[in-house]
Amino acid sequence: MTATPEGLSDRATVLAQYPPAAEQLDLAEIADFVVAEPAHRRVAQVRAEARRSGRVLLEPLAGFGGVKQHTDALTVLRDKGTADILPTQVDSQTRNLKFDEVATMLAEHGDGPLPLNGYPIVNHPLTVTRDLVSTVDRPIELRIGSTDPRLAAEMAFAAGISSITAGPLYYLVHYSSAVTVEQSVANWGYVFSLASWYARQGAPVGLQVHGLGNSTPFPASLLGAGAVLECLIAAARGCRHFAVDSRLMGNLRQDVASLRAIRDAVEHYLAQAGVDDAVVTMVRKTWAGRYPADEARAFGLISYTAVSGMLSGADEFISNSVQEGVGIPDPEANAASLRAIRHVVDLLGPQPELTREDEGVEREYALITAELHAIVDAVLDLGEGNPGRGSARALELGVLDVPFAASRTCRGEVVTARDSEGAVRFVDFGRLPIPDWCRKFHSDAMERRLARTAKSVYDVVVSDIFSISNGPLVEVAE
Amino acid sequence: MTATPEGLSDRATVLAQYPPAAEQLDLAEIADFVVAEPAHRRVAQVRAEARRSGRVLLEPLAGFGGVKQHTDALTVLRDKGTADILPTQVDSQTRNLKFDEVATMLAEHGDGPLPLNGYPIVNHPLTVTRDLVSTVDRPIELRIGSTDPRLAAEMAFAAGISSITAGPLYYLVHYSSAVTVEQSVANWGYVFSLASWYARQGAPVGLQVHGLGNSTPFPASLLGAGAVLECLIAAARGCRHFAVDSRLMGNLRQDVASLRAIRDAVEHYLAQAGVDDAVVTMVRKTWAGRYPADEARAFGLISYTAVSGMLSGADEFISNSVQEGVGIPDPEANAASLRAIRHVVDLLGPQPELTREDEGVEREYALITAELHAIVDAVLDLGEGNPGRGSARALELGVLDVPFAASRTCRGEVVTARDSEGAVRFVDFGRLPIPDWCRKFHSDAMERRLARTAKSVYDVVVSDIFSISNGPLVEVAE
Amino acid sequence: MGTVVTGAAGDDVHVIGIRLVEMGLRHAGHDVVSLGALVAPAEFVDAARESKADAVFASSLNGHAQFSLAGLRDALVEAGMGHVLLYGGGQLTIGRPPWEEVVALFVDRLGFDRIYDSDVPIEQVLSDLEQDLALRGESR
Amino acid sequence: MGTVVTGAAGDDVHVIGIRLVEMGLRHAGHDVVSLGALVAPAEFVDAARESKADAVFASSLNGHAQFSLAGLRDALVEAGMGHVLLYGGGQLTIGRPPWEEVVALFVDRLGFDRIYDSDVPIEQVLSDLEQDLALRGESR
Ligand code: B12
Ligand code: B12
């Protein structure tokens, strides 16, 4: 093995998490392997090229335990789903580092379908995953909701999986309970350094940056602040390829403004940090909250997302399926969902985005940008320039805060809802450093909403969590 | 029977088309019956109320031969489709006045499904259709592609079906071959007078006005000119309830402008004709041309239509199903299609329309309005104020003209295609009186499109007919 | 190059497809006698005879093709025009049954020379026609 | 009014639903001990004992409920907390099998007092709880 590369001083500890995996991870061999991988399988390259050419990319969500089952699913998504990037979602056991349990399961089930909710990337042999990559012959992104994705990333990148969903804040907040910010940032820092090592070999690894968004009506400023911080944390470790999420929240003008504002903010802060060679692309993720149980309504919802993304100038869609409200989607339904989106993408492809001349878009853009900058600046101040340290302090103080977080690091004082046009507004700012004029805007908007309904604020907050799934973005019969 | 009402001097001839039907048509009895019909089943009333309240209406397309089959289909569309207005499409035999043939068929098949492509409204007993109306208990619209819908209208209105798709120009141009304009206008004039008789009884009958659009990329100015003329023809006979079509053509800004421009023009010309008590509502019909054979893509297409309609301020959607590209849809799939649209309608309900401040919308609005007025004014001049006579002369001279018409009354010299943003443009103006500045706009836009492709104009025209169905509104790899 | 009679058969008003085919035929140098919508079998036959047509292109989309195109070949034969090429296209059936069944009905039983699915590229039709015309030329 | 221990069970991080339930409980005047995400059976039991809870509300959405909630009732009994009301909710299964099957598994076999489908209105849960608490009050 070569000398420990920069930022990977913990490598021995990581590899010790599961020796049978570690044995397969020889950096010299890997370097040779990944450089020889064809460019069309490199997520970062495909994203950068699509941004140049204007082709809009689609990526579904999927992950099965068995190799054959997973390969078959990805093949369906490739052939019938017009997918440009294929996902490999990792199972919960792997996310929680329970590799021995997975090994027992694998031993029992052999090649058949496994009772796992994703692909156990650490336990399947490296050669097997390499075969997967070359068989489906598309760029693959590892999707891993974990605060310790280090060994999984080692195995994935070494197999030619060329991108990973990232995560130091997002996965901490929404996928963990007792983990500290410092732990999550350190673990993800390792992954970012590893990604940079690949870039130095000539095979850059992409990051799909989540931001802080959750699955309720979520303010774009807070979502974007998280994305900026995650990009800065990764950029400090040398990462340069960011596909940043701006998820659908439902109000068209706000969602258009959101994508633009987040793109501009990420570019602004990267430049401010002295990074001038980053490639930032924007993802519109479909609604991430509760889905209609009815597939037909779900088709309406994801197609609407596609329109909203196209009018926002999104570079890519990452999409739930129309069976999201029911259970794990079968690959055929997943592919059909992508085709519905593709059709909308095709129709709107030649049409220009919604211009900022639209008053509503312009107003939301200003609002999101002002709030986002206020939050990020406050966090960076707390960290004295270090975004990871700043985030830790900020979560503690409530300068970063998220409603409905899974993690105990969040105070959970922020409350959000929709105004009478369905735009997301703060109902309680918690301790977020939101500028006064923005506060007034939110309060006024919510006042107008509340004036039109007999409901209590509590009832409004609750019902707004269900509104996208039920249909009416703002309940009609109030 | 009472004295022949105004405008119905041909009534005896009409009734003689099929005596077994005629026997059931006693105006005095009918007057009593329709006045007693509940208001919530009156299409015109439901449309007027929805416009006031902002509720957006949905109507599917459907028509089956057998009473039970048709009733079941409408029940599914009502219960599972969230349909506000239910359709009753008439079969081809009835449209061609082949009532004896239908009678033979009915005698053979009894209550079972009939090999007819619609509901034979003239042959089914009046009481049977009345039962249908009260069973489904929703407002019903007769959809009849015919240049002689007189007896069908008699039977339908008498049964409580309270609206009809109209038609003097549209059905002439697209559903007939050798019929003259004068014949079609006279027959439809009869229907309009009949509708007015119902209004005088206190049970107004609605008209769903088609305009001239066909199923290829079709200019909104020409579509709207047809709608204005049809409204004027009907208004002269006393009709006051117009649900006017502005069908999806694919370019969002143009489609938004189209709905507004047509609404404004219809209101303008009705006012100019001294009609100040009309109720004009706007329908966005889903794409009326070739559909994707793939239901998933079709879900994308109709959901896109829903977004476009909502951003246009449409009052209503009339929708094809996602099985349009395959064959007659089953009622379940038809209902699912409506639910997808309903979900989008729900999401965009509280959001304001796209404002005219959008430069593209503003430009298209001006263009459509100028062309539409130029055409309508020329037609009215030719008819010396009589829109029916004017239309006849105009079609003859090519002052009104339609590409791909079925009728020989059309010269068919106009050629259309899409510009590089997918907006519909004239390639050949034929003899249409389009203002010079508009001509220049179209020509410039098409020049830009053609400059970007190696294809001939012919190939562009052909491929644009398939583009909405294939996906890319403008072919990408040109 | 040949002469082709075109039309949408029976009670069918769907003319867009057949008009595109006509455009393609003219483009390729054929003469076209276009009958438009709602064309009865007798009209096809008369037009074919009068124009000494080489082929009849009958279109049908509304699902009634098997009725409206049923007597066409026989009528052509009766009128002494049995040699005329008979092509059908559009959506010849209700729904989408297996293509072999459609061929069995229209080619084997109703005497069509060629029929096409609605996905057919016009170029395909044109090249088939050219080939068929060439063959006929040789065999006469 | 009672004391309710809440949490998302096992390896489940879906907390939105259970947090809404907590809001409803507090709103109705109950005391809530909220354990959040990723709660092991032992944690539920400890919290129930320490807070002298009247009920445990266990949520699970990720499809693993039948494993992560399996030992909960037994653990409560062992800890001398057998009387505690045990409610389950979220998406207790993978996909949507018939509801009777879900009830058979969680109520009959795993010892839950009540379980709920994800469409349940929170009011329904609250009124059920009130009733159950009243009944317990009487029977003690
Ligand atoms: C546009 C359209 C109409 C328009 C037609 C306008 C006009 N005058 O042409 C209007 C609105 C008038 C209409 C009316 C009706 N329609 Co329509 N219509 C369509 C639609 C949406 C597209 C057809 C089209 O224009 N395609 C585009 C052209 C370019 O493609 P094409 O016709 O297939 O032609 C291509 C090829 O097939 C080939 N081709 C065609 N003909 C021939 C012939 C030969 C010899 C050759 C070689 C090749 C060839 O070349 C063309 C170029 O590539 C289809 C659904 C669909 N397919 O998406 C329904 C559809 C065909 N209609 C249908 C029906 C039922 C009707 C009605 C009866 C509905 C009603 N109950 O009111 C009426 C009445 C029509 C009548 N009496 O004939 C059904 C038919 C059902 C079936 N076959 O199973 C369809 C499939 C819709 C559905 N899903 O229910 N319709
Ligand atoms: C939001 C969401 C997430 C978020 C969760 C954020 C968070 N920290 O809470 C994130 C993105 C993190 C996530 C992750 C995953 N998710 Co998820 N997720 C969803 C989603 C879209 C909505 C859930 C939700 O918030 N609903 C809204 C709330 C308000 O409703 P609710 O939870 O049902 O709660 C209500 C009632 O059920 C009831 N209730 C709930 N609990 C209880 C308990 C009691 C005692 C009572 C009385 C009542 C009650 O009260 C609530 C108010 O009405 C659903 C799909 C859907 N349903 O649309 C999938 C879904 C639940 N997720 C799923 C999966 C598989 C996962 C992952 C494993 C995916 C992966 N492979 O990466 C991961 C990992 C999660 C883990 N380790 O647990 C699957 C579960 C499959 C199944 N059960 O068959 C679903 C159904 C999606 C799908 N179709 O595949 N997910």
From TrEMBL, chains C, D:
Protein name: B12-binding domain-containing protein
All residue ranges annotated as the B12-binding domain in the record: 1-136
SUPFAM superfamilies in the record: Cobalamin (vitamin B12)-binding domain
A Pfam family recorded for this sequence: B12-binding
Superkingdom as given in the UniProt entry: Bacteria
MF terms (GO), sorted A to Z: cobalamin binding; metal ion binding
InterPro entries: Cobalamin-bd, Cobalamin-bd_sf
